[in-house]
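A quick word before the example. In earlier lectures we treated sequence and structure as two separate objects. From today on, think of them as two lines of the same record. Here is DUF4349 domain-containing protein written that way.
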Amino acid sequence: MRKLFLPLCLLVLISGCKKSELDVANSSPAVSADKAAAVAEYEVEAPPAPNEVHQVAPPNSISEKLLPDENKSAQSSVASKKLDTIAKKVIKNGNMRIQVVEIKKAQNQVADILRKNEAYIQNEQFQNTDMEENLDLVIRVPHKNFDALINSFSEGVGSVLSKNISSDDVTEEYTNVSIKLANKKIYLEKYRDMLRSASTTKDMIQIQETIRELEDEIDVAEGRLRFIDDRVNYSTLNLSLYKEKVRSSATSKMGFGSRLADSVTEGWNSFMSFLLGIISLWPFLLIIPVIIFLWRQWKSGRSQKN
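And the structure line, produced from the sequence above:
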């Protein structure tokens, strides 16, 4: 019996050892997976390095709130780049005085020249005196046709008495106004956002007043830009057509008889003007007899007293 008991004990011990080894072998992959997950979790949840922390502090004042955000700053930089590429702005102006033989004929020639150069008359003024006839025109012409217009007037209309052409470069002014306008529009949007979130009546009134001032300044700036664009796109020419009426004896083609008749006519016109001037004084002529009558009455009364 003892001989049978010992082998059975040895068999039980050997089977128990094998089972524990199998359990350890089966449990080791799970343990390694748990360790890997823990390591991965540690790596994910690990705090960033001090150099990698990026935090944006909230604005501490209203002035900081009014500063453009990152998107506005990007838009401003893009706008600045566009402003850097503004084409050169040059305003051309001119003044011309031309002596012509006949005003009507010269006026027709001017109309043909304007039509060919896509120009138009902005203002027209005519004067007719005893000495001369003047037709003053303010002409607007596209910038590209300005030189051609000047040459056309110089060649075929009449004798040029005077000519003055000037150019004014306004690129710097146009750029400065454009930059200020862009900045004012950005701040206007910021103030409108502040108005939506205003909590007190005092803040609302103050913000509305600032918005009104900004809108007025924006309107002025936009008007200035439109004015510059108009003067750049269309040049201005002040043209004066002049005809002299007075004829000298050396240049006149009229004979002595014609000039004598003109002199008699002018003398008669002068006499009629003098006579009409005297007649226009008739109220004063009526007062003179009254003054004479009163003077005689006063003189006769004085003599009777003596």
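Notice the following. The chain has nine helices and five strands. We will return to this example when we discuss secondary structure assignment.
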